[in-house]
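From the shared-data thread, chain only:
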Amino acid sequence: MKWKVQLDNIQNNKLVVKKNSYQELIITESFQEEELFIFVEENAQLIIKQEYKQDTPIIIKLIISVEKNAQVMHELFIATASSIACSYEFILVGAGALVKSSGFIHGINQSSSVIRVEQLHKEINTESLVSFKTVLDDTALYDYQGTIIINKNAVNAKAAQHDKVLLLHAGATATSIPSLQVNCNAVQCSHASVISCINDDQLTMLSCRGITKTEAKKLIVAGFLKH
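Structure, as tokens:
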């Protein structure tokens, strides 16, 4: 299978981002049913961009080890009527390691999006921030489970996990379960899960201003994504 990346040294589904380097990884539908182990060495920076727009079933798991003062920036975009399953393990093994992960999912028709995230802090002064926003229409399904794990040695660790879902249709279904496992007192952790839906009052208020139902939905979605 061909990997659509801007990186060298991918061997046996393993990728090493060398010390003090900057690299970008582009992931598209060509990564079907793949597992990739990524090692980000000291002071390195890795940008990961995942984008799925074609109606192709996807199963992918990324296991990312982040060493001292290294940074990982991850973006996920899904807009498809297919089934997508994405799993992430962010392992912060070095002091000062940083991970930021964000995702936007637009589920339509009978699409299914399954997301699993684990943020594991093993060292001091590590930081991980995960934020997902999902909009579901028709009979689309979304299933999210996320876990933050703080080891006893991870003093001054900072970790956050936020998942927000907007339902546009009564037939759409969402499940969102964030959790914490904290084994150190001197840390800052937060997690939140919000599932909301468009109600008739919102649509009525906008229709009174001459806005069609379709345009009203677009405005509500835009506001949801902005905040």
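Helices lie at 200-207, 213-226.
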